[in-house]
Write a structure and sequence with these properties.
- The structure is a homodimer of 213-residue chains.
- With 213 residues, chain A is an alpha+beta fold.
- Chain A has a single domain, classed as Glutaredoxin (3-Layer(aba) Sandwich).
- Chain A is 57% helix and 8% strand.
- Chain A contains 11 helices and 4 strands; from the N terminus they run αβααβαααααααββα.
- Chain A has a 4-stranded mixed beta sheet, with helices on both faces.
- In chain A, a hairpin with a 2-residue loop joins strand 3 and strand 4.
- In chain A, helix 2 packs across helix 7.
- The longest helix of chain A has 18 residues.
- Chain A starts with a helix and ends in a 6-residue tail after the last helix.
- The relative contact order of chain A is 0.18.
- At the A-B interface, helix 5 and helix 11 of A face helix 5 and helix 11 of B.
Amino acid sequence: MPASSGLARQHAPIQFYFDFSSPYSYIASEWIDAVAARHGRRVQWHAILLGVLFQAAELKPPVAYPLKRDYALRDFERSAHFAGLPYRQPGAFPIATQHAARVFWWLHESQGHDAAVAWAHAGLRAYFTRGVALNDVVALKALAGESGLDAAAAEAAWGDERWKQRLKAENEAALAAGVFGAPYCIVDGEPFWGQDRQAQIERWLASGPFKRV
Amino acid sequence: MPASSGLARQHAPIQFYFDFSSPYSYIASEWIDAVAARHGRRVQWHAILLGVLFQAAELKPPVAYPLKRDYALRDFERSAHFAGLPYRQPGAFPIATQHAARVFWWLHESQGHDAAVAWAHAGLRAYFTRGVALNDVVALKALAGESGLDAAAAEAAWGDERWKQRLKAENEAALAAGVFGAPYCIVDGEPFWGQDRQAQIERWLASGPFKRV
């Protein structure tokens, strides 16, 4: 390999996949950029639909299982507090998030990655700390306005075939990359599933693959 | 509450549930006693059958799902190395572990908790670092002998109705306690599922429930 490829690899962005209805995505969304920055990396955010991935992978969310549900609801809140974050379990959960995700990709294309990430934070924080129902078009439009977006344009975007197709393509690309859950990070080809892989991601960024014992 | 109850709570043992065929149980089994000791606690180990719990909870192991399987096999090894442990993915996986678990409970009753824990370590290490098939009665009997047990007595124990019933009762008790996976720790009534909750367990032991942000 040419001498430049090591450098290129070192500067490759971290791929970060999230769903607006995923509590663990919310938690990871609050640290992923800082973790990357500590190691001179950037993050490429991807809004995806967990429901589509679950269907392809024959999986269900943890709250779909009787015994796991109670634990999961407890662990969402506890893990957020452990990470120093506010958390309030939304009453309606999980919810369909295709509208919020299409707004993400519309912003990504029309205003750039940072604008899309700002919307991701706005949506995740609104849902997981204030219970704003992102699947309610009135609430979502209001949130778009509060977040400094053109609310009517956002509403037009989530109903637009162009962003429907874009989100569909992004879900398919995620599946092709092996993504089956969220948050899901890919660092130099290595996949890390879950907000609880933060320490592993940090060490991987610092020193690469863990040594075989 | 009387003044003594705080002290009693502080000294209550950590409940630790594991399955001999669970890679994440193997990882946690290597740190749980040290974590407890750092906080003046002891650990009460419970050998259980994940298959029984999964059936009751309508769950399947991660390797039963097409997309999750590849990730899981990678994460088992990576997480072991991250924890500083040797790991070799067994060829036959997962396996039925009722024989090894019955030996655990037989030892627990006849020789005490420490002897049962020594057997747990012997079984988990043999399976996850040397590929010793714990579901193979010849290999299991040999392992019992190597581990300083009376191999014939161990073989008699795993075929004995008494230890079959004991394991059944322990599985039922685990289910009643809300256990649906392994490793599963209960600290003063608070459940922690997974080897990746070590940091949360440490903080909980040090300072109790995490403060609401």
